[in-house]
Write a structure and sequence with these properties.
This protein is an alpha/beta fold. It has a single domain, classed as 3-Layer(aba) Sandwich (Rossmann fold), CATH 3.40.50. The N terminus is likely disordered. It contains 11 helices and 8 strands.
């Protein structure tokens, strides 16, 4: 899975990927009430610039973009990628519902061009790799300004999905209802606001709405890849859980980075949240007859 290392690629030996614990706490999905990227930068231009945009470091030479769907293990995976020290520091830098604003403020950026330039200078690993993870709705404002290679340089794509759409939709509903998107291994909230119903009831309508949103986002990504003739490295949540080290290694090869370290879910920044409630709800939904075949084959390419 993935391409062979390219000549001149970076090398990293013998390091076990221990995931850093980051402090940003964000959740929520794109929606009508969410601020737009342009709105965030308009508000930032009204603030005093805390620091000048960085210009003392070179631009990254390549970009790794983790194209993702919600509830696919992307936060755990990206924590392991960051821990390699050679695959960038992938965060949701384009998410205007949370991470974008504090990152832009920290970097002194007042528009998207300044912001991406600053990120590529400050958030790349020493071997020149900048990485980010993105939901398709958060990528659209960048696409509206031209092809992403104009802003990010050469880009390699890894596409993270989930085979079990029912479990994914249940996970998404519970996260939205509870405000708990992630917990760290100690059980503390991680990149989550909380504040919702800590024990949301079974809600078939909202679970099916989550399923429909997941299918929409998957369709958007598939069209994006097809229209640009991009062949991403395809990964699944199930494959990541079964072989985290293999997934990290495949991404390193796709990015043209040689890495002989070891990655394990035991040191990921987040803990698994699914429990027997999720399994009971999945059984109940499947037995309800409401899925109507939308699940089977939903991951196949068009």
């Amino acid at each position: 899975m993935g391409s062979s290392p390219t000549p001149g690629s970076s090398r990293h030996r013998g390091r076990r990927a221990r995931a850093p614990i980051a402090s940003a706490n964000f959740g929520a999905m794109p929606g009508a009430s969410a601020p737009s990227l342009d709105q965030v930068f308009r508000e930032l231009r009204g603030e005093a610039r805390a620091v000048p945009p960085p210009a003392d470091r070179p631009l990254s030479s390549r970009t790794l973009l983790i194209a993702m769907l919600p509830r696919t293990g992307s936060t755990a995976l990206c924590s392991l990628l960051e821990a390699t020290g050679v695959l960038g520091m992938p965060r949701e830098y384009l998410n205007p519902r949370g991470p974008l604003r504090p990152w832009a403020r920290r970097l002194g950026a007042r528009d998207l061009e300044e912001y991406l330039d600053a990120l590529r200078r400050r958030q790349a690993t020493p071997n020149g790799v900048f990485s980010l993870k993105v939901l398709y709705p958060d990528l659209k404002p960048l696409l509206a300004r031209g092809e992403i290679t104009e802003a990010l340089g050469p880009v390699k794509f890894a596409y993270l999905t989930r085979d079990d759409l029912v479990a994914q939709a249940i996970s998404m509903y519970i996260a939205e209802a509870s405000g708990v998107w992630h917990r760290d291994p100690s059980g503390a909230l991680f990149r989550s606001r909380g504040g919702g119903d800590p024990d949301p009831p079974y809600d078939e309508v909202r679970i099916l709405e989550a399923r429909d949103e997941l299918l929409r986002q998957q369709g958007d990504w598939e069209r994006f890849f097809a229209e640009r003739r991009i062949t991403p490295l395809r990964l699944t949540y199930e494959g990541f859980v079964a072989d985290a080290n293999g997934c990290v290694g495949a991404i390193a090869r796709e990015a043209g980075v040689e890495w002989d370290g070891e990655a394990s879910l035991d040191v990921a920044a987040t803990a698994r949240l699914a429990d027997d409630r999720s399994e009971r709800w999945a059984k109940r939904l499947r037995e309800s007859g409401r899925l109507r075949g939308a699940v089977r084959g939903h991951r196949r390419r068009p």
